[in-house]
Write a structure and sequence with these properties.
Blueprint lengths: L1 E5 L3 H12 L3 E5 L2 H10 L1 E5 L4 E4 L2 E3 L8 E6 L6 H7 L4 E9 L29 H5 L5 E7 L2 E5 L2 E4 L4 E5 L8 H12 L3 E4 L3 H22 L3 H6 L1 H20 L8 H4 L1
Parallel strand pairs: 1-2, 1-6, 2-5, 3-10, 6-7, 7-8, 11-12
Antiparallel strand pairs: 3-4, 8-11, 9-10
Helix pairs in contact: 6-8
């Protein structure tokens, strides 16, 4: 099975590096100094500040250099997904699966949800349906990453122990052949990977905390423990989360938890 990681940052680098170390055929698309560093020195992984592990993968900044893949792991920032969509065609064959491992609401989020127009693009994410035309919903398997990782230098991924990955079909469940194949590969690579009965719910639950905690952390420069530990700020975030919980229920994503559970 051939895997290609589109975006060799912290999440993509960790996934690609672990899969390559487990013996899978892995290539990657990246830009600038990352391409040069990985070609020269390999992709380096470091867990918890310990010994680095180096793997060799094929890397390029041109999709045409890599050719069709069985699974394309898209792990770029949301601001880059339109460019990825417009350039992804050389990586796809008829049966290629696109594993969407991105933060935020993805372009395919409405696909499979009840109570919304699943055929209507989310304009804030996919204006005019540009991304959906290049990467149709039928190709997509969703992935949520819960981890602490960074790229301290080009071609280097530093991560904390026990990263977790949740995988699922946009239409529900993770029992499809392609989900089972991906989950089996991630487990073989030594990763904690599980299927989700509703990948949109898994995404929304992660966002439920991120959409309130992250902006406050960015504006104040405070770490999560200080933000959550302040009674006034904690109460404000809880009110915001109750509003987000109500929005989720309107589009068929129920969260059976209180803000304190997410904190």
């Amino acid at each position: 099975m051939k895997f290609c990681v589109y975006g060799l940052g912290a999440v993509g680098g960790l996934l690609g590096g672990k899969l390559a170390a487990a013996g899978f055929d892995v290539s990657a698309l990246a830009r600038g100094k990352t391409v040069d560093a990985v070609r020269r020195d390999g992709l380096k992984l470091s867990c918890g500040g310990g010994t680095e592990e180096t793997v060799r993968i094929t890397i390029s900044d041109r999709p045409a250099d890599l050719g069709p893949q069985d699974v394309v792991i898209v792990s770029v920032k949301n601001t880059a997904i339109e460019a990825v969509a417009e350039g992804i065609a050389p990586l796809l064959h008829e049966g290629t699966t696109v594993l969407s491992a991105m933060n935020g609401v993805p372009w395919w989020f409405y696909h499979g949800l009840k109570g919304v127009d699943a055929g209507k693009p989310i304009e804030a994410v996919d204006p005019g349906g540009i991304i959906s035309r290049h990467i149709p919903h039928a190709r997509v398997v969703g992935c949520v990453a819960n981890l602490s990782a960074s790229t301290p230098a080009p071609g280097v991924v530093a991560h904390q122990p026990d990263p977790k990955f949740t995988v699922g079909e946009p239409t529900g469940g993770a029992s499809s052949e392609r989900c089972r194949t991906i989950l089996d590969a991630l487990v073989k690579a030594g990763l904690d990977a599980q299927g989700s009965p509703s990948i949109q719910q898994s995404i929304w639950f992660k966002l439920w905390g991120n959409m309130t905690l992250n902006p406050i952390s960015a504006m104040t420069g405070c770490t999560s423990d200080l933000v959550v530990g302040d009674p006034l700020v904690r109460a404000f975030m809880a009110r915001c989360m109750q509003e987000a919980k109500a929005i989720g229920s309107r589009i068929g994503i129920a969260i059976d938890a209180a803000p304190e559970a997410r904190f």
